[in-house]
């Protein structure tokens, strides 16, 4: 168990994230702000040894309790996968829960030192696990991942991997950045590997943490330089150029993929006018 000194202020409202295995305790039914129901999870005080402070949300302290594989039963609440929060369209709520989940996962997977095998301890002044024997220190893992919307005249390149095919959806291309690689190199490499085309004129747009399990999506727009679409057949099964006003089923706007597509449509319509 991870022991540390957390001072819990009983009088001030706080937000509790209770994780059990891969799931989070959430209210049975909407409506009602999900945050309010999390406020009432003061019962988790009993697990003081396991409480970890994970930042703030609108002036309220966020606490995480990881129950491991222990089942949690709480009236009016159920255990659900983090992804279900995405259905409520409350990206802000999803973001704070996602942060808590990533910390929980980090603590779970760093109980022992990867260098000498000793038990690691959480340090108080920053989010890190430290080995007192060999002084190896670990921070929460963040995996940068590029995501890119490619434009050619009034068309956008959208692709389908297996997961998108199952959801009957086409999305932008994405892939993990490799060791020693710049973000720009990753974009050029991934695009060429997955669909066989070269791109130019890369523009950074925005980023989005994506906690499945610990990606940081770095979003770009790009233009086609040259080449014909030729899918790799592994990560990408299908890819096409879609006219901006005849798009297939695409990711929702709260996702960075949705935002990049939206931005590309905006640029196409602006050049048309
Ligand atoms: Zn060590």
What does this structure look like?
The model is unreliable at 1-8 (pLDDT under 50). The chain has two domains: 14-108, Nucleoside Triphosphate Pyrophosphohydrolase; 143-272, Nucleoside Triphosphate Pyrophosphohydrolase. By secondary structure, the chain is of the alpha+beta class. The protein is built from five helices and 14 strands. The strands form three sheets. Strands 9, 10, 11, 12, 13 and 14 form a six-stranded mixed sheet that branches. It has a five-stranded mixed sheet with strand order 3-4-1-2-5. A three-stranded antiparallel sheet has the order 6-7-8, with no helix packed on it. The N and C termini lie far apart (62 Å). A hairpin with a 2-residue loop joins strand 1 and strand 2 (23-27). The chain binds zinc ion (ZN). The site of zinc ion has 8 residues, from loops. One of its GO terms (molecular function) is metal ion binding. This is NAD(+) diphosphatase. Pfam families: NUDIX, NUDIX-like, Zn_ribbon_NUD. It catalyses: a 5'-end NAD(+)-phospho-ribonucleoside in mRNA + H2O = a 5'-end phospho-adenosine-phospho-ribonucleoside in mRNA + beta-nicotinamide D-ribonucleotide + 2 H(+). One of its GO terms (cellular component) is cytosol.
């Amino acid at each position: 168990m991870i022991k540390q000194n957390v001072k819990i202020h009983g009088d001030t409202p706080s937000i509790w994230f209770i994780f059990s295995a891969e799931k989070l305790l959430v209210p049975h039914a909407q409506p009602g702000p999900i945050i309010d129901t999390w406020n009432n999870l003061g019962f988790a005080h009993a697990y003081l040894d396991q409480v970890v402070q994970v930042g703030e949300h609108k002036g309220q302290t966020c606490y995480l309790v990881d129950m491991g594989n222990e089942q949690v039963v709480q009236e009016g609440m159920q255990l659900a996968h983090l992804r279900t929060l995405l259905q409520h369209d409350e990206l802000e709520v999803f973001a704070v829960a996602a942060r808590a989940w990533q910390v929980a996962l980090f603590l779970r997977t760093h109980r022992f030192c990867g260098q000498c095998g000793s038990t690691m301890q959480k340090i108080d002044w920053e989010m890190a696990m430290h080995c007192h024997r060999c002084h190896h220190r670990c921070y929460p893992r963040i995996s940068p991942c590029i995501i890119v919307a490619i434009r050619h005249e009034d068309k956008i390149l959208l692709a389908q991997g297996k997961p998108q095919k199952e959801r009957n959806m086409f999305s932008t291309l994405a892939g993990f950045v490799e060791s020693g690689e710049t973000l720009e190199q990753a974009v050029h490499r991934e695009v060429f590997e997955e669909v066989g085309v070269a791109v130019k004129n890369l523009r950074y747009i925005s980023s989005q943490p994506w906690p499945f399990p610990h990606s940081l999506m770095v979003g770009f727009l790009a233009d086609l330089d040259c080449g014909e679409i030729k899918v790799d057949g592994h990560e990408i099964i299908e890819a096409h150029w879609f006219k901006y006003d005849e798009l297939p089923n695409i990711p929702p706007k709260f996702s960075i993929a949705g935002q990049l597509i939206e931005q590309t449509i905006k640029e196409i319509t602006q050049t048309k006018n």
